[in-house]
């Protein structure tokens, strides 16, 4: 594999803005195929913004971001985004299986209906998160953790080369957490790169090769163990960080 | 094939087409063969206004079954036909209207009902006065019946139409019409006598409605100006128009102002209060657009017209 | 009972009214599912008011034939306006919508009040004249209905995705604004199709009630759409039959368009009752210690 194929995501002095206001400054780093990076920082540090920029939804005003060797907006086909499950309407009349199938829509294109192949891929994705038996149940009747797994399955169904997860472990039970980690590990083994924004340091240690510490500007970007030091954490969390059970609180 | 094109859309379209065609297929019924009322079945006649219905009943007698669309007190201009109205027209042997643009809704309703027979315009043959300039009166002043001579023409027209539709009973219709016309003549004469008894200086009419043009022309009354300056029963008076009218009333020296039956008397009262005249309203109100409730004195044409004349003459100082 | 439901429609004018009511009921109902899912009831109501001046202008220019074209022009304009409004919510969206809809509506009333026949015209525009629907109107309704249903069929899965997860849709590169404009246009087209038969005030019932009622009866989208269509059609049928029966056999005037709306509301009440039984049944089932709900 040559360099561009191995590099899923590259930040070069990337600075982001909403309108006039700069919200994130000088992010530098590389994520390679099969690697996973934890995005860690207090609320308002720009983590969600950074993820949106990788999707091409936020303007890059300084430096650049390269996704799979392309400009973010052109790489969307191969990038999957997993939102937090509780941002979605729990009353919506859609089954878990149907949610996962939504991951195939871009590939299917306008006007056409999902085919047998699409359904197979979706079923496999749901199986990968351990919820194959819940396909026919309404999305909102599942637990928080199960819903998060369904959303990951939706992303898997997309067959992406890069996955972005926005705080996927928030309020998730142990079983679901396990399932999520297992699925993410498989994805990594298959060559997909993963970026996970999280507050959970223990999970970062468990699941991620590298960490990007963010507080409106990049505090550090490097291998997990080396980067998750108390000094750097304090710098990222403004000296107010308290780590309890591996999770950063009081930010 | 990995992907299927949508199959339900063409099905839906076919369904829509089928339903549409079902709706288009139904044309109108023919009005039927000439009716034989003499055989016991009455001629089904739809009349729009209470006045026209009264004429039809008097000319047709037992030979007709009249469906009257507009109940007493209902404004003919803004009427929306009910299912029963449309059904009555659909089943009718003959439809009779007042005419002169009074029933703007009738054409559309007749079409919808599928009635393909003759719509008798009672005002056919009557000399129509100019309207007041509004587009609703584009065809002229529709209140033709307040002149009994016009009423006679309307009755004659109705009799002819009934006779044409039901030739077997033609003679009866004509006989009935002649008898009723004699009553109209008597009404006409009585009106003239009564109005002649009003002091000449007082022969002026101020009412809510521009509905008495034909009446005033026939009996030599002067129309000072209506309180609501248009045929539209729901238009309102601006401040300027109000003071103009009060000035006019005062200048004319008239003794009484007349409030029309189907309008709230408050408007008339305001003007009269400022101009210092008697307000004739409420139960003594004039029948301008139609007739009073069935069974009341004003429930027939003859009764309503006599009431109007008596009320006007008494208020203006004449003898009835 | 059967006599009540069938006899009125032996008259051609009632049959035509029924066809129009069925067309509008089904098309409106399918759209109403999306209106309910996207919580667009107020936006749809705003659309019925902003289309109104177009109705009046069309009528002033070209009499009854002009109504649909005036409505169409203002429908497109309104859909665009309301879509753009949602982008930049500086004043709360509700308030801005209310200002827009009352402003447009007032313009329409002012325009129509300059005619002396304005009471009649106004009631016709607001509440429709379903009994005098003719062949031409039915064809026009069918064409518009076909366009609406086709659009929903073609864009269906993307519209559902957007309704469920707008951020996810944006992340996948869908232009959410364009999808919203498409749906607003679809709603506006239903208003245009309905204006002569049911009027701009009553059409909101078609655009909300069937979908809301169906949602109470099922959790599965495909079933909801079918149920909504059935409810929309049934409301039209029952309402027309009731207003005919009342008028012809009891001398009671019940405005046909409004009676259809009441029929729909009654069906909603029935759906609510059934829905309550359904969910209390589920609760009993679940609390009995058995595993929690499987989709019905």
Characterize this entry briefly:
The complex is a heterotrimer of chains A (251), B (320) and C (296). By secondary structure, chain A is an alpha/beta fold.
CATH architecture of chain C: Orthogonal Bundle
The shape of chain A, in one word, is globular
What percent strand of chain C? under 5%
Spans of chain A of 5+ residues with little confidence (pLDDT < 50)? Answer: none
Return the CATH topology of chain C. Answer: ABC transporter involved in vitamin B12 uptake, BtuC
The whole-number mean of residue pLDDT values of chain A reads 90
* Largest contact between chains: B-C, 44 and 43 residues
CATH class type of chain A? Alpha Beta
Radius of gyration of chain C, in Å, reads 20 Å
What does this structure look like?
- The complex is a heterotrimer of chains A (251), B (320) and C (296).
- Chain A is an alpha/beta fold and 251 residues long.
- Chain A is 33% helix and 27% strand.
- The longest helix of chain A is centred in the C-terminal third of the chain and has 16 residues, at 174-189.
- The N and C termini of chain A lie far apart (41 Å).
- Chain B has two domains: 37-187, Rossmann fold, CATH 3.40.50; 197-316, Rossmann fold, CATH 3.40.50.1980.
- Chain B has helices at 8-25, 50-60, 83-91, 106-113, 148-165, 170-196, 213-219, 239-252, 266-275, 301-316, and strands at 43-47, 64-68, 94-97, 119-121, 204-205, 222-223, 256-258, 278-280.
- In chain B, the strands form three sheets. In chain B, strands 2-1-3-4 form a four-stranded parallel sheet, with helices on both faces.
- In chain B, α2 crosses α5 and α6 (170-196) runs parallel beside α10.
- Chain C is mainly alpha-helical and 296 residues long.
- In chain C, α3 packs across α9 (199-217) and α6 (135-164) packs antiparallel against α8.
- Residues 289-296 of chain C have low confidence and may be disordered.
- The chains are: A alpha/beta (251), B alpha/beta (320), C mainly alpha (296).
Keyword list:
heterotrimer; A: 251 residues; alpha/beta; Rossmann fold; six-stranded mixed beta sheet; three-stranded antiparallel beta sheet; 11 strands; 33% helix; B: 320 residues; 2 domains; four-stranded parallel beta sheet; two-stranded parallel sheet; 10 helices; 8% strand
SSE layout and pairing:
The complex is a heterotrimer of chains A (251), B (320) and C (296).
Chain A: H1 3-6, E1 7-18, E2 21-32, E3 36-40, H2 47-54, E4 59-67, E5 79-82, H3 96-102, H4 105-108, H5 116-128, H6 144-157, E6 162-166, H7 174-189, E7 193-197, H8 201-207, E8 210-214, E9 218-223, H9 224-227, H10 230-236, E10 242-244, E11 247-249
Parallel strand pairs in A: 3-7, 3-8, 5-6, 6-7
Antiparallel strand pairs in A: 1-2, 1-4, 8-9, 10-11
Helix pairs in contact in A: 3-5, 3-6, 5-6, 6-7
Chain B: H1 8-25, E1 43-47, H2 50-60, E2 64-68, H3 83-91, E3 94-97, H4 106-113, E4 119-121, H5 148-165, H6 170-196, E5 204-205, H7 213-219, E6 222-223, H8 239-252, E7 256-258, H9 266-275, E8 278-280, H10 301-316
Parallel strand pairs in B: 1-2, 1-3, 3-4, 5-6, 7-8
Helix pairs in contact in B: 2-5, 3-4, 5-6, 6-10, 8-9
Chain C: H1 2-6, H2 12-37, H3 41-87, H4 93-113, H5 118-127, H6 135-164, H7 166-171, H8 176-194, H9 199-217, H10 221-250, H11 256-287
Helix pairs in contact in C: 2-6, 2-8, 2-9, 2-10, 3-4, 3-8, 3-9, 5-9, 6-8, 8-9, 9-10, 9-11, 10-11
């Amino acid at each position: 594999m040559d360099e561009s194929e191995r590099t899923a995501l590259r930040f070069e002095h990337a600075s982001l803005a909403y309108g006039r206001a700069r919200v994130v400054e000088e992010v530098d780093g590389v994520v390679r195929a099969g690697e996973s990076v934890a995005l860690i920082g207090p609320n308002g540090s720009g983590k969600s913004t950074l993820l949106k920029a990788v999707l091409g939804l936020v303007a890059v005003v300084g430096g650049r971001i390269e996704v799979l060797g392309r400009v973010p907006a052109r790489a969307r086909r191969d990038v999957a985004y997993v939102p937090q499950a509780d941002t979605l309407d729990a009353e919506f009349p859609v089954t878990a299986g149907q949610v996962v199938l939504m991951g195939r829509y871009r590939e299917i294109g306008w006007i056409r209906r999902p085919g047998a192949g699409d359904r197979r891929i979706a079923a496999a994705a749901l199986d990968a998160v351990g919820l194959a038996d819940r396909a026919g149940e309404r999305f909102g009747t599942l637990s928080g953790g199960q819903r998060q797994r369904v959303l990951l399955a939706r992303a898997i169904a997309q067959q992406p080369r890069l996955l972005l997860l926005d705080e996927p472990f928030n309020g998730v039970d142990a079983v679901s957490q396990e399932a999520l980690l297992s699925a993410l590990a498989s994805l990594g083994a298959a060559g997909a790169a993963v970026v996970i924004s999280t507050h959970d340091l223990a999970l970062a240690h468990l699941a991620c090769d590298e960490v990007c510490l963010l507080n409106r500007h990049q505090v550090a970007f490097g291998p997990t163990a080396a980067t998750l030091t108390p000094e750097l954490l304090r710098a990222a969390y403004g000296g107010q960080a308290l780590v309890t059970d591996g999770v950063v609180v009081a930010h | 094939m990995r992907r299927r094109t949508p199959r339900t859309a063409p099905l839906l379209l076919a369904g829509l087409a089928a339903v549409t065609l079902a709706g288009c297929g139904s044309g109108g019924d023919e009005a039927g063969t000439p009716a034989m009322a003499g055989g016991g079945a009455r001629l089904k006649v739809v009349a729009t206004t209470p006045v026209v219905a009264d004429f039809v009943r008097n000319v047709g007698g037992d030979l007709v079954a009249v469906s009257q669309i507009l109940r007493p007190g209902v404004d003919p201009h803004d009427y929306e036909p009910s299912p029963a109205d449309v059904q009555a027209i659909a089943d009718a042997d003959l439809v009779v209207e007042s005419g002169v643009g009074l029933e703007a809704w009738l054409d559309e309703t007749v079409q919808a009902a599928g009635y393909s027979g003759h719509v008798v315009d009672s005002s056919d043959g009557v000399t129509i006065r100019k309207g007041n300039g509004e587009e609703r009166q584009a065809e002229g002043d529709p209140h033709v019946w307040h002149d009994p001579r016009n009423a006679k023409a309307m009755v004659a027209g109705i009799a002819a139409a009934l006779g044409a539709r039901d030739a077997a009973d033609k003679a009866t219709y004509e006989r009935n019409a002649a008898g009723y016309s004699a009553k109209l003549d008597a009404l006409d004469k009585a009106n003239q006598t009564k109005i002649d008894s009003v002091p000449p200086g007082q022969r002026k009419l101020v009412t809510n409605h521009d509905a008495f043009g034909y009446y005033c022309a026939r009996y030599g009354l002067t129309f000072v100006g209506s309180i609501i300056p248009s045929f539209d029963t729901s238009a309102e008076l601006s401040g300027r128009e109000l003071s103009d009218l009060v000035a006019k009333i005062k200048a004319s020296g008239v003794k009484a102002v007349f409030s029309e039956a189907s309008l709230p008397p408050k408007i008339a009262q305001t003007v009269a209060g400022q101009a210092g005249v008697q307000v004739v309203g409420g139960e003594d109100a004039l029948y301008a657009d139609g007739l009073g409730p069935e069974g009341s004195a004003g429930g027939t044409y003859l009764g309503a017209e006599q009431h109007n004349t008596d009320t006007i003459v008494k208020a203006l100082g004449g003898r009835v | 009972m059967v006599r009540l439901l069938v006899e009125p429609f032996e008259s051609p004018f009632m049959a035509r009214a029924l066809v129009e009511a069925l067309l509008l009921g089904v098309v409106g109902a399918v759209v109403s599912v999306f209106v309910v899912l996207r919580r667009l009831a107020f936006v749809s109501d705003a659309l019925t008011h902003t289309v109104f001046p177009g109705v009046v202008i069309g009528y002033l220019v070209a009499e009854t034939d002009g109504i649909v074209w005036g409505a169409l022009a203002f429908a497109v304009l309104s859909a665009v306006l309301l879509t753009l409004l949602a982008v930049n919510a500086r004043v709360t969206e509700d308030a801005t919508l209310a200002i827009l809809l009352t402003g447009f509506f007032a313009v329409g009333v002012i325009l129509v009040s300059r005619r002396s026949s304005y009471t009649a015209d106004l009631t016709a525009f607001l509440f429709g004249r379903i009994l005098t629907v003719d062949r031409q109107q039915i064809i026009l309704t069918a064409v518009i209905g076909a366009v609406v249903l086709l659009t929903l069929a073609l864009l269906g899965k993307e519209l559902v995705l957007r309704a469920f997860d707008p951020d996810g849709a944006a992340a996948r590169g869908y232009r959410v604004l364009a999808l919203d404009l498409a749906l607003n246009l679809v709603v506006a087209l239903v208003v245009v199709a309905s204006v002569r038969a049911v009027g701009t005030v009553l059409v909101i019932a078609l655009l909300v009630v069937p979908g809301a009622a169906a949602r109470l009866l099922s959790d599965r989208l495909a079933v909801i759409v079918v149920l909504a269509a059935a409810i929309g059609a049934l409301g039209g049928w029952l309402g027309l039959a009731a207003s005919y029966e009342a008028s012809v056999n009891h001398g009671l005037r019940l405005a046909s368009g409004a009676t259809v709306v009441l029929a729909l509301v009654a069906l909603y009440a029935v759906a609510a009752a059934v829905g309550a039984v359904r969910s209390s049944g589920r609760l009993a089932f679940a609390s009995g210690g058995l595993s929690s709900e499987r989709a019905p």
